[in-house]
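The authors assume throughout that readers already know how a fold can be written as discrete tokens. For illustration, here is how one protein appears when written out as sequence plus structure tokens:
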Amino acid sequence: MKTEGKKLRRWGVPAGGACVLLGLVMWQMGVFQFGKVRPGETALPGGRAEGRFVTVEEVEVPETYRTAGTVSSRTHVDVAARIVARIVEIPVRSGDRVTNGALLVRLDDADLRAGVNQAAERVKAAQAGVSAAAEKVSQAQAAYDLALADVQRMRPLLASGAISQQALDTAESQFRQARAALAQAEQGRVAALAEVQAAQQAQRQAEAVLSYAALYSPSDAVVAERLADPGDLASPGKVLLRLFDPSRLMLEVPVRESLVQRLKIGDKVPFSVTALGRTFTGEIREIVPAVDPGSRTFMVKICIGEAPGLVPGMFGTLELPLGTRRALVVPEAAVTRAGQLEYVQVKAGNGVQRTLVRTVPAGGGKLEVVSGLEAGAEVRVE
């Protein structure tokens, strides 16, 4: 008896666990779910067959691919300073239209103007040095000419014995000294000219840095965002203003890769902007030849041009017609909703039965029946 009890305990635990697991699987499969209604499978009690009935027909409905994108501008400029300085003036605000060359930001330029003045003074000093060097060259040239003339005059005199060799040697030594002095003066003039060029280059550089204190619009644009105020410190890389060209708006939309053959550069396509309640037409100007491996889509850029009310950042929905397909449609008035349930009243003999259905919008006051009905059924229109 003890042996049999041990056997029962040994096999009883695994068998009980298996039963519990089997029951859980059957519950998940819906075996124990009684009384629940499935769309189109259970007819609810209705009433008498009164009112107007329409026949459910299978018709051709247009099939459309919809995808959402973002409006942007092909010309988008972030305005930032190239130097570190305090902001003195920003005469524009968000939403303002600016023309090409209009002043956007003025920075404190007192130190920069002082640098330009110092560079200008250096140029003047260098030019004075050139004048002094030219005077030295002129004097050295005169001494050289005189020494050369003496040597040329004394050489014939030496041959006739009118002068001594020592006198000629002295004249030739003075000539060599005059020649060396002239060469040194020429080098001094070249150095002075180089100094002038260096000073002028420094002046141009200082003037260029001074020009960085005023920021101008590179084109006709709209101020999308102002990110700084007078008194703030501007520095390279810190965006002060964001501009966009309203005449070069475009819609960037991801399109699934299977539709790449349907789109071509130059195609005119419509898209809607829910925020404005309007539909626009744009031209496909660019199809990015790369597919995103995560979403399996490629980017399409549709140029719009200027459109009143349309600004970068808005969402637009592109609708691409894919042809037609067969579908069951009923009038919207034939479908009654109770919470999340939808049902229609189907004619059955002299009465009607309520049948649960699932629908999606089909446009034009129609609903497409996804499940619950078959073609030829008659449904009552409220």
About this structure: The two ends are 76 Å apart (CA to CA).
